[in-house]
Amino acid sequence: MLALSPLDMRDEGRGTRDGTWDTGQGTRDKGAVDEFLQQLKVVRHASPNTLRAYARDLADFLAFLEAEGVSDWQQVTVVTLRRFLNNLFALGYERRTIARKLSAVRTLFRFLAQTGRISANPAAELRQPRLPHKLPQVLDERQVESLLLAPEPKTPRGVRDRALLELLYAAGLRVSELANLTVRDVDFAEGLVRVRGKGDKERLIPLHEEALHWLRRYLQESRPQFLRRAKKVTDTLFVSQKGTPLTVRQIHRLVTSYARKALGLTVSPHALRHSFATHLLEGGADLRAIQELLGHASLAATQIYTRLSRSHLRRIYEKAHPRS
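Above: the chain's sequence. Below: its structure in C-alpha coordinate form.
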Protein backbone atom coordinates (compact mmCIF):
# COMPACT_ATOMS: atom_id res chain seq x y z
CA MET A 1 0.00 0.00 0.00
CA LEU A 2 1.38 3.41 -0.91
CA ALA A 3 2.29 5.99 1.69
CA LEU A 4 1.23 8.56 -0.90
CA SER A 5 -2.49 7.85 -0.57
CA PRO A 6 -4.38 11.14 -0.50
CA LEU A 7 -6.55 9.68 2.23
CA ASP A 8 -3.46 9.04 4.35
CA MET A 9 -2.34 12.64 3.76
CA ARG A 10 -5.47 14.13 5.25
CA ASP A 11 -6.25 14.89 8.91
CA GLU A 12 -10.02 14.67 8.46
CA GLY A 13 -11.79 11.35 8.86
CA ARG A 14 -10.80 8.16 10.64
CA GLY A 15 -9.18 5.06 9.19
CA THR A 16 -10.78 1.71 9.96
CA ARG A 17 -9.25 -1.75 10.28
CA ASP A 18 -11.05 -3.17 7.25
CA GLY A 19 -9.38 -0.75 4.81
CA THR A 20 -12.31 1.66 4.44
CA TRP A 21 -12.45 5.34 5.28
CA ASP A 22 -14.98 6.57 7.81
CA THR A 23 -16.20 10.01 6.78
CA GLY A 24 -18.73 10.22 9.57
CA GLN A 25 -21.54 9.65 7.07
CA GLY A 26 -20.75 6.20 5.75
CA THR A 27 -17.70 4.51 4.26
CA ARG A 28 -15.78 4.90 1.03
CA ASP A 29 -13.35 2.30 -0.30
CA LYS A 30 -9.91 3.55 0.76
CA GLY A 31 -8.16 0.64 -0.89
CA ALA A 32 -9.37 1.78 -4.32
CA VAL A 33 -7.33 4.98 -4.19
CA ASP A 34 -4.25 3.19 -2.87
CA GLU A 35 -4.61 0.54 -5.56
CA PHE A 36 -5.03 3.21 -8.22
CA LEU A 37 -1.83 4.99 -7.16
CA GLN A 38 -0.02 1.67 -7.02
CA GLN A 39 -1.09 0.95 -10.61
CA LEU A 40 0.21 4.36 -11.70
CA LYS A 41 3.54 3.55 -10.11
CA VAL A 42 3.98 -0.07 -11.24
CA VAL A 43 2.10 -0.32 -14.54
CA ARG A 44 2.42 3.21 -15.93
CA HIS A 45 5.84 3.89 -14.31
CA ALA A 46 4.68 7.25 -12.98
CA SER A 47 7.45 9.35 -11.46
CA PRO A 48 7.44 10.26 -7.74
CA ASN A 49 6.51 13.83 -8.70
CA THR A 50 3.53 12.60 -10.73
CA LEU A 51 2.38 10.36 -7.88
CA ARG A 52 2.58 13.24 -5.42
CA ALA A 53 0.60 15.47 -7.80
CA TYR A 54 -2.13 12.83 -8.23
CA ALA A 55 -2.24 12.29 -4.46
CA ARG A 56 -2.68 16.01 -3.77
CA ASP A 57 -5.32 16.48 -6.46
CA LEU A 58 -7.30 13.46 -5.33
CA ALA A 59 -7.07 14.63 -1.71
CA ASP A 60 -8.80 17.86 -2.79
CA PHE A 61 -11.48 15.86 -4.60
CA LEU A 62 -12.11 13.56 -1.63
CA ALA A 63 -12.35 16.54 0.70
CA PHE A 64 -15.01 17.98 -1.62
CA LEU A 65 -16.95 14.69 -1.60
CA GLU A 66 -16.92 14.64 2.20
CA ALA A 67 -18.21 18.22 2.29
CA GLU A 68 -20.97 17.20 -0.14
CA GLY A 69 -21.94 14.22 2.02
CA VAL A 70 -21.02 11.70 -0.68
CA SER A 71 -19.88 8.49 1.00
CA ASP A 72 -19.89 5.97 -1.86
CA TRP A 73 -18.35 5.98 -5.35
CA GLN A 74 -21.70 4.96 -6.86
CA GLN A 75 -23.24 8.20 -5.54
CA VAL A 76 -20.90 10.35 -7.65
CA THR A 77 -22.70 11.68 -10.74
CA VAL A 78 -21.70 14.02 -13.52
CA VAL A 79 -23.56 16.74 -11.60
CA THR A 80 -21.32 16.07 -8.58
CA LEU A 81 -18.23 16.41 -10.75
CA ARG A 82 -19.49 19.64 -12.33
CA ARG A 83 -20.04 21.07 -8.85
CA PHE A 84 -16.44 20.10 -8.04
CA LEU A 85 -15.22 21.98 -11.12
CA ASN A 86 -17.35 25.03 -10.30
CA ASN A 87 -15.95 24.98 -6.78
CA LEU A 88 -12.39 25.03 -8.13
CA PHE A 89 -13.22 28.01 -10.36
CA ALA A 90 -14.84 29.78 -7.38
CA LEU A 91 -11.67 29.22 -5.33
CA GLY A 92 -9.66 31.01 -8.01
CA TYR A 93 -7.63 28.13 -9.40
CA GLU A 94 -6.06 28.69 -12.83
CA ARG A 95 -7.51 26.75 -15.76
CA ARG A 96 -4.36 24.64 -16.15
CA THR A 97 -4.51 23.60 -12.49
CA ILE A 98 -8.21 22.76 -12.82
CA ALA A 99 -7.50 20.73 -15.96
CA ARG A 100 -4.79 18.80 -14.11
CA LYS A 101 -7.10 18.04 -11.17
CA LEU A 102 -9.85 16.97 -13.53
CA SER A 103 -7.41 14.68 -15.35
CA ALA A 104 -6.57 12.96 -12.04
CA VAL A 105 -10.28 12.49 -11.25
CA ARG A 106 -11.08 11.19 -14.75
CA THR A 107 -8.21 8.69 -14.58
CA LEU A 108 -9.35 7.52 -11.14
CA PHE A 109 -12.93 6.94 -12.32
CA ARG A 110 -11.72 5.06 -15.38
CA PHE A 111 -9.86 2.79 -12.96
CA LEU A 112 -12.95 2.43 -10.72
CA ALA A 113 -15.00 1.37 -13.75
CA GLN A 114 -12.36 -1.10 -14.95
CA THR A 115 -12.17 -2.73 -11.52
CA GLY A 116 -15.95 -3.00 -11.18
CA ARG A 117 -16.30 -0.56 -8.29
CA ILE A 118 -18.77 1.56 -10.28
CA SER A 119 -21.30 0.43 -12.89
CA ALA A 120 -21.04 3.61 -15.01
CA ASN A 121 -18.32 6.23 -15.34
CA PRO A 122 -19.73 9.74 -14.66
CA ALA A 123 -16.40 11.37 -15.55
CA ALA A 124 -16.71 10.17 -19.16
CA GLU A 125 -19.40 12.80 -19.71
CA LEU A 126 -17.26 15.63 -18.38
CA ARG A 127 -15.50 17.99 -20.78
CA GLN A 128 -11.97 19.23 -20.17
CA PRO A 129 -11.81 23.00 -19.55
CA ARG A 130 -10.57 24.90 -22.59
CA LEU A 131 -7.00 26.02 -21.98
CA PRO A 132 -5.47 29.27 -23.21
CA HIS A 133 -2.89 28.86 -25.98
CA LYS A 134 0.30 29.85 -24.20
CA LEU A 135 3.59 29.43 -26.01
CA PRO A 136 6.52 28.19 -23.89
CA GLN A 137 9.42 30.44 -22.97
CA VAL A 138 12.25 30.23 -25.51
CA LEU A 139 15.63 31.95 -25.42
CA ASP A 140 17.30 33.11 -28.62
CA GLU A 141 20.77 31.82 -29.46
CA ARG A 142 22.57 34.86 -28.02
CA GLN A 143 20.68 34.55 -24.75
CA VAL A 144 21.54 30.86 -24.51
CA GLU A 145 25.21 31.67 -25.16
CA SER A 146 25.18 34.30 -22.38
CA LEU A 147 23.57 31.84 -19.97
CA LEU A 148 26.08 29.08 -20.76
CA LEU A 149 28.99 31.48 -20.20
CA ALA A 150 27.67 32.69 -16.83
CA PRO A 151 29.45 30.15 -14.51
CA GLU A 152 33.03 30.93 -13.44
CA PRO A 153 35.19 28.29 -15.20
CA LYS A 154 38.15 28.75 -12.82
CA THR A 155 36.31 27.19 -9.85
CA PRO A 156 35.23 23.54 -9.36
CA ARG A 157 31.63 24.64 -8.91
CA GLY A 158 31.78 26.80 -12.02
CA VAL A 159 33.07 23.89 -14.11
CA ARG A 160 30.25 21.70 -12.80
CA ASP A 161 27.62 24.33 -13.52
CA ARG A 162 28.95 24.98 -17.03
CA ALA A 163 28.84 21.24 -17.76
CA LEU A 164 25.30 21.02 -16.36
CA LEU A 165 23.99 23.95 -18.43
CA GLU A 166 25.74 22.71 -21.57
CA LEU A 167 24.17 19.27 -21.15
CA LEU A 168 20.68 20.66 -20.49
CA TYR A 169 20.78 22.62 -23.75
CA ALA A 170 22.76 20.09 -25.82
CA ALA A 171 20.32 17.25 -25.11
CA GLY A 172 17.06 19.11 -24.37
CA LEU A 173 16.65 17.26 -21.07
CA ARG A 174 13.91 17.54 -18.49
CA VAL A 175 15.33 18.51 -15.08
CA SER A 176 14.25 15.16 -13.58
CA GLU A 177 16.10 13.35 -16.38
CA LEU A 178 19.25 15.35 -15.71
CA ALA A 179 19.05 14.69 -11.96
CA ASN A 180 18.72 10.93 -12.56
CA LEU A 181 21.74 10.60 -14.86
CA THR A 182 24.65 8.45 -13.70
CA VAL A 183 28.28 8.64 -14.74
CA ARG A 184 27.79 5.50 -16.84
CA ASP A 185 25.05 7.17 -18.87
CA VAL A 186 27.56 9.35 -20.73
CA ASP A 187 29.35 7.52 -23.54
CA PHE A 188 32.32 9.68 -24.52
CA ALA A 189 33.52 7.24 -27.18
CA GLU A 190 30.23 7.45 -29.08
CA GLY A 191 29.36 11.00 -28.02
CA LEU A 192 25.99 9.96 -26.57
CA VAL A 193 24.00 10.26 -23.36
CA ARG A 194 21.50 7.59 -22.29
CA VAL A 195 18.37 9.15 -20.80
CA ARG A 196 15.52 7.53 -18.89
CA GLY A 197 12.41 9.58 -19.55
CA LYS A 198 8.72 9.40 -18.72
CA GLY A 199 7.34 5.89 -18.44
CA ASP A 200 10.91 4.70 -17.76
CA LYS A 201 11.58 4.76 -21.52
CA GLU A 202 15.21 5.03 -22.59
CA ARG A 203 16.52 7.13 -25.45
CA LEU A 204 20.01 7.91 -26.76
CA ILE A 205 20.85 11.54 -27.52
CA PRO A 206 23.97 12.67 -29.39
CA LEU A 207 26.13 15.34 -27.75
CA HIS A 208 28.25 17.97 -29.45
CA GLU A 209 31.93 18.36 -28.64
CA GLU A 210 31.51 21.47 -26.47
CA ALA A 211 29.19 19.65 -24.08
CA LEU A 212 31.51 16.62 -24.01
CA HIS A 213 34.50 18.89 -23.28
CA TRP A 214 32.87 20.42 -20.20
CA LEU A 215 31.60 17.06 -18.99
CA ARG A 216 35.15 15.66 -19.19
CA ARG A 217 36.51 18.63 -17.23
CA TYR A 218 33.81 18.24 -14.60
CA LEU A 219 34.42 14.49 -14.19
CA GLN A 220 38.19 14.93 -14.05
CA GLU A 221 38.48 18.12 -11.97
CA SER A 222 35.35 18.95 -9.97
CA ARG A 223 33.45 15.77 -9.17
CA PRO A 224 36.42 13.99 -7.48
CA GLN A 225 36.87 17.01 -5.19
CA PHE A 226 33.21 17.05 -4.23
CA LEU A 227 33.12 13.29 -3.59
CA ARG A 228 35.94 13.53 -1.03
CA ARG A 229 33.46 15.28 1.27
CA ALA A 230 30.71 12.72 0.70
CA LYS A 231 29.60 10.39 3.48
CA LYS A 232 28.12 7.98 0.96
CA VAL A 233 29.40 6.88 -2.47
CA THR A 234 27.11 7.74 -5.39
CA ASP A 235 27.26 7.18 -9.14
CA THR A 236 24.92 10.11 -9.83
CA LEU A 237 26.48 12.31 -12.50
CA PHE A 238 25.92 15.73 -10.97
CA VAL A 239 26.68 16.13 -7.27
CA SER A 240 26.75 19.02 -4.84
CA GLN A 241 29.89 20.42 -3.26
CA LYS A 242 29.17 18.06 -0.36
CA GLY A 243 29.21 15.07 -2.70
CA THR A 244 25.46 14.41 -2.52
CA PRO A 245 23.31 14.05 -5.67
CA LEU A 246 21.93 17.35 -6.93
CA THR A 247 18.16 17.44 -6.55
CA VAL A 248 15.63 18.77 -9.06
CA ARG A 249 15.04 21.75 -6.75
CA GLN A 250 18.76 22.54 -6.53
CA ILE A 251 19.16 22.36 -10.32
CA HIS A 252 16.15 24.63 -10.77
CA ARG A 253 17.62 27.21 -8.37
CA LEU A 254 20.99 26.98 -10.08
CA VAL A 255 19.59 27.69 -13.55
CA THR A 256 17.33 30.48 -12.28
CA SER A 257 20.23 32.15 -10.48
CA TYR A 258 22.51 32.16 -13.53
CA ALA A 259 19.69 33.42 -15.77
CA ARG A 260 19.06 36.38 -13.47
CA LYS A 261 22.78 37.11 -13.40
CA ALA A 262 23.38 36.78 -17.16
CA LEU A 263 20.07 37.87 -18.66
CA GLY A 264 18.14 39.70 -15.97
CA LEU A 265 15.27 37.27 -16.63
CA THR A 266 13.39 34.61 -14.72
CA VAL A 267 14.20 31.47 -16.69
CA SER A 268 13.30 27.90 -15.74
CA PRO A 269 15.43 24.90 -16.78
CA HIS A 270 12.58 23.85 -19.06
CA ALA A 271 13.21 26.99 -21.14
CA LEU A 272 16.49 25.41 -22.27
CA ARG A 273 14.58 22.31 -23.39
CA HIS A 274 12.14 24.51 -25.35
CA SER A 275 15.06 26.46 -26.81
CA PHE A 276 16.80 23.21 -27.82
CA ALA A 277 13.74 22.03 -29.78
CA THR A 278 12.97 25.41 -31.34
CA HIS A 279 16.54 26.00 -32.49
CA LEU A 280 16.71 22.51 -34.02
CA LEU A 281 13.49 23.15 -35.93
CA GLU A 282 14.69 26.55 -37.14
CA GLY A 283 17.93 24.87 -38.24
CA GLY A 284 16.02 22.47 -40.47
CA ALA A 285 15.62 19.40 -38.24
CA ASP A 286 12.73 17.06 -38.95
CA LEU A 287 9.82 17.22 -36.50
CA ARG A 288 9.87 13.43 -36.04
CA ALA A 289 13.56 13.55 -35.14
CA ILE A 290 12.89 16.28 -32.57
CA GLN A 291 10.09 14.14 -31.13
CA GLU A 292 12.55 11.27 -30.66
CA LEU A 293 15.18 13.52 -29.08
CA LEU A 294 12.66 15.04 -26.65
CA GLY A 295 11.15 11.67 -25.75
CA HIS A 296 7.59 12.75 -26.59
CA ALA A 297 5.16 9.86 -26.84
CA SER A 298 3.01 11.78 -29.33
CA LEU A 299 3.97 14.04 -32.22
CA ALA A 300 1.18 16.39 -31.11
CA ALA A 301 3.26 17.40 -28.09
CA THR A 302 6.16 18.33 -30.38
CA GLN A 303 4.05 20.35 -32.82
CA ILE A 304 3.91 23.35 -30.49
CA TYR A 305 7.44 24.15 -31.70
CA THR A 306 6.13 24.68 -35.23
CA ARG A 307 4.06 27.55 -33.81
CA LEU A 308 7.15 28.94 -32.15
CA SER A 309 9.07 28.62 -35.40
CA ARG A 310 6.34 30.48 -37.29
CA SER A 311 6.58 33.29 -34.73
CA HIS A 312 10.33 33.41 -35.39
CA LEU A 313 9.77 33.60 -39.17
CA ARG A 314 7.24 36.41 -38.73
CA ARG A 315 9.76 38.42 -36.68
CA ILE A 316 12.36 37.96 -39.43
CA TYR A 317 9.80 38.94 -42.10
CA GLU A 318 8.70 42.08 -40.27
CA LYS A 319 12.30 43.09 -39.68
CA ALA A 320 13.57 42.37 -43.22
CA HIS A 321 10.70 43.01 -45.64
CA PRO A 322 10.80 46.56 -47.05
CA ARG A 323 7.00 46.91 -46.95
CA SER A 324 6.49 45.56 -43.43
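The chain is about 55% helix and 5% strand.
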